[in-house]
Amino acid sequence: MRTLRTQVVVVGAGPAGLYLSHELRAHGVDSVIVERCSREHLERRVRAGLLEEGTVQLLRGSGLADRLDRQGLVHDGFQLRFEDTVQRISTVSLIGEPTYIYGQQEVVKDLLAARPSDDGSLYFDALDVQIAGITGDKPSVAFTVGGEHVVVEADFIAGCDGYHGVSRASIPTASLAFHTRRYPFDWIGLLVNAAPFASELVYSVHPRGFALASMRTPEVSRLYLQADARDEQSNWPHERIWDELGQRLYVDEGRMRARGAILEQVRVPLRATVAEPMQFGRLFLVGDAAHIFPPTAAKGLNVALEDSSVLAHALIGWFRRGEAGPLEGYSSARLPAVWRAQDFSAWLTWLFHPAADATAFDHRRRTASLTRLAEGGSSAVAFADEYVGRSRRRLSSLSYIHELDGMEA
Ligand code: RFL
Ligand code: PHB
C-alpha cells in the first residue's frame, strides 16, 4: 500500500476535474486526479459540442484555447425550422455574442496536453475508488491501480466524477436533497462521416418530433432526433432514423442527403438533476456530479467549467490567503446559476419536443411561440441571452474571479 499527500484530490478527469486541477496548479495549489477510465477512452468519448462565449473566455484566460481558436467553428446564430419555414436567429445581431462548436473530447485533449506528462499527479484506470473522512479535516481517496492499493490524503476533495460517480453517493442522504426530473423524451444521437447538413446548427420542430443537425468539424456531422422514452431502440433501424431526419428537417420530399457512414450512435435519456447543497464537509460537487441538464440547450459542459472556475478560486483563496468565506459559500454561489440553466433547458425542451399525445391545439400553440422567437423582438433578445449563457454568467460570481486574477497578476 502507498500513501500520498496533496492539497486537493480531484475525483474524475472529465472536463470539470481537469480544468479545476489546471487552474489550481496555475495558482500554486497541488492536486492529484483519480480517474476510473483510460486516457484513450476519455480522449475518444463523444459528448458536448457547443461552447458558450463565457466558457471560451475561461479557456482563453487559462492559456488553453490555442487549438480551439484555430479549429473551433464560430457561429453567429442558428436556423430554426418549423411549419415548413426556415428562420434564422442571429445571437450576434440580437445581443452581440456568438457560440462555438468544438468537441468536448478536444477540450479534454487540450487539458491533458497542458499537464506535465509524468509527474504522478493523474491516475487513470483507478479501480474501486472510495472516499473517506469528509466530515473531518483529513479526507482521503483510496483506490487500486495496477494491482497496488493507493491512499491519497488531502485537505479537500473535489467530486468531478459525473452522474454515476462515487462522490455524491458519499454524502449522507439526510444531508442532501437530490432533485430529479425525467422528461418523457430520449435523443438518438449520430456521429456521421459527412459534411454538416447546413453551415450553422439547425433546430427543427416538426409534429413528428424534434431534430437537431449539428456538427463537430467541416467533415463530421452530429445529428439528433427525439424518440419517445418508451420506444425501444430496436424499433429504430438506420433506415427509420434517416427517414425521420429527412422529414423532421423539412428536407425536400423527406429524403435526407449525405447519409454518410455512422461513426457512433447513442441513446440519451433527457433528464435533469440538481444536488443541494453542492458541498458537504470537505467534499465539493462539481459539474455532472452535482447537476445534469437535458442536452437541448447545451448547458452541461458550460456550467461544469463555470463550477470548476468558481471552486478553483475559492480553494486558491483558502490556500493562498487563508480565506474560508468563498469555500463555505461555493454551493450558494453556484445554485442560482444552476437553476437558471435548468429553467431555460426545461423551457426549451418543452418548446422543441412535441409530446406523444400532442393535439392540433398543442402544435398550433407551439408554432405561435416559435413565431414569436423568429420575429426578433424582445422575446428573441431574452432567448438569446439565455442561449449564449450571458444572463447566467451575470449570476455566476465570475466577476469575483476576474478581480482575484487582477490582484494576483
Ligand atoms: P464527465 O464528463 O462525466 O466526467 C466525469 C469523469 O469522472 C469519471 N468517473 C470516475 N472517476 C473515478 N472514480 C469514479 N468512481 C468515477 N466515476 C466516474 C468518468 O470516467 C469521467 O471521466 O463530467 P464533467 O467533467 O462534469 O463534464 C460534464 C459534461 O461531460 C456534460 O455536462 C456534457 O457532456 C453535457 N452535454 C453538453 N454540454 C454542453 O455544455 N454543450 C453541449 O453541446 C452538450 N451536448 C451533452 C451534449 C451531453 C450529452 N450526453 C451524451 C449526455 C450532448 C449529449 C448527447
Ligand atoms: C451538440 O452538437 O452536441 C449540441 C449542439 C447544440 C445543442 C445540443 C447539442 O443545443
Verbal overview:
By secondary structure, this protein is of the alpha/beta class. The protein has a domain at 2-73 and 104-180 and 272-355: FAD/NAD(P)-binding domain, CATH 3.50.50. It is built from 14 helices and 21 strands. It has helices spanning 15-26, 39-44, 53-61, 66-71, 91-95, 104-113, 238-248, 300-321, 325-328, 330-352, 360-374, 378-387, 390-394, 398-408, and strands at residues 2-5, 8-11, 31-34, 50-51, 73-75, 77-82, 85-90, 99-101, 122-123, 127-132, 140-145, 148-153, 156-159, 177-193, 202-206, 209-217, 220-228, 261-276, 279-280, 283-285, 291-292. An eight-stranded mixed β-sheet has the order 7-6-15-16-17-14-18-21, sandwiched between helices. Strand 19 (279-280) and strand 20 form a beta hairpin. The site of 8-demethyl-8-dimethylamino-flavin-adenine-dinucleotide (RFL) has 37 residues, from helix 1, strand 18 and helix 8.
Task: List descriptors.
six-stranded mixed sheet; alpha/beta; binds P-hydroxybenzoic acid; single chain; 29% strand; eight-stranded mixed sheet; 409 residues; binds 8-demethyl-8-dimethylamino-flavin-adenine-dinucleotide; FAD/NAD(P)-binding domain
CATH topology of the domain at 2-73 and 104-180 and 272-355: FAD/NAD(P)-binding domain
Structural class by secondary-structure content: alpha/beta
Q: What would you report as the Rg, rounded to the nearest angstrom?
A: 22 Å
Q: CATH superfamily of the domain at 2-73 and 104-180 and 272-355, please? A: FAD/NAD(P)-binding domain
**Could you give a short account of the major beta sheet?**
8 strands, mixed
Please report the first level of CATH classification, the CATH class of the domain at 2-73 and 104-180 and 272-355.
Alpha Beta
Total beta strand runs = 21
